[in-house]
Amino acid sequence: MTTPTTPTSPTPATTPAPAPAPAAAPAFLPLPAPFYQRGPVTLYCGDSLQILMALPPGSADALLADPPYSSGGAFRGDRMQTTRAKYAQQGAAHDLGDFSGDSRDQRGYLAWSTLWLTAATHILTPGALVGVFADWRQLPVTTDALQAAGLVYRGIAAWLKNNGRPCLGRFASQAEYIPWGTNGPRDATAGNCPRGWCEAPASAEIGGAPPIADRVHLTQKPLPIMEWLCSPVAEGATILDPFSGSGTTLLAAIRTGHRALGVEIDPRNCEAIAKRIDAELDQKRLQFDL
Ligand SMILES: C[S@@+](CC[C@H](N)C(=O)[O-])C[C@H]1O[C@@H](n2cnc3c(N)ncnc32)[C@H](O)[C@@H]1O
């Protein structure tokens, strides 16, 4: 009977070559031409899920998203109404159009949010800051989606709107929330150190949302809120907004010294964004020429 011998690994004759660096993961879909591109701003017109799956890894250094909440009502019947019926304030003098994607139930909203956040994570640089708007109803599913997408959930910032109706025997709903996280570890030794909340009325007061007559979108966010949210991001970095609406985030990003990457599904909104950004960049050029 022969005793089995333990195989020994052969001594390498030379030092093995280092393993090749892993190739950057390819994008999943072909990327269409931008709808608008000028200076620090690039805008794609289309479904954000598809565009995010087409953009190359490393396209953005931060994500600030204001998706259609699919909320705006206590009961399912309320939520199924048009966005105009749900969100238009009394006295809206002009026809701010409806927008799509606002009628998912909560399970659908969680699944969809997980999908687009996962696709967005694929194109974010390591350590990228991520903030997603939510009202009180969608807050729990939004924090679930952040984590399901593989992001590190780190806290909740708040926009104090001060516009909620006072209700006898109840707390008024006077805030919206920005649950936030990071794409893995984030350098905590650099950058600004903003407060975790910001106050700006949702109505037409100073520093709040624009007067309804000046709005180009039903749920246009106040510029100071978006500038506050851009403030922890390093200057020169690219901020992504996959649901750009009227382009408030893109405008805030360039006003705070960043580059901006937007996606919006409605071509009418894309036109409005292009006009807003053109006006800003024309103004900047004028200032520079002077
Ligand atoms: C809440 S609004 C954003 C408002 C924006 N923050 C502003 O200040 O104007 C959400 C936007 O997402 C757009 N949208 C809805 N579904 C989308 C999708 N699948 N891909 C890209 N944009 C989408 C809507 O047309 C709408 O303009």
Give your account of this protein's structure:
The chain has 290 residues and is of the alpha/beta class. It has a single domain, classed as Vaccinia Virus protein VP39 (Rossmann fold, 3-Layer(aba) Sandwich), CATH 3.40.50. Helices cover 29% and strands 18% of the residues. The chain has 8 helices and 9 strands. The chain has a 9-stranded mixed β-sheet with strand order 1-2-9-8-3-4-6-5-7, sandwiched between helices. Helix 1 runs parallel beside helix 4. It is globular and about 80 Å long. The model is unreliable at 1-9 (pLDDT under 50). It binds S-adenosylmethionine (SAM). Residues 47-48, 66-68, 99-101, 217, 219-221, 243, 245-246, 248-249, 263-266, 269 line the site of S-adenosylmethionine (SAM).
Major sheet: order of its strands?
Answer: 1-2-9-8-3-4-6-5-7
By secondary-structure content and strand pairing, the structural class works out as alpha/beta
Rg is 23 Å
Sheet with most strands: 9 strands, mixed
**Topology order in helix (H) and strand (E) letters:** EEHEHHHEHEEEHEHEH
- Oligomeric grouping of the chains: single chain
**What would the average pLDDT be, to the nearest integer?**
86
Total domains: 1
Q: In terms of per-residue confidence, which ranges show pLDDT below 50 for 5 or more consecutive residues?
A: 1-9
Number of helices: 8
Strand content: 15-25%
What is the CATH superfamily classification?
Answer: Vaccinia Virus protein VP39
**Small molecules in complex:** S-adenosylmethionine
What is the count of β-strands? 9
Q: What would CATH call the architecture?
A: 3-Layer(aba) Sandwich
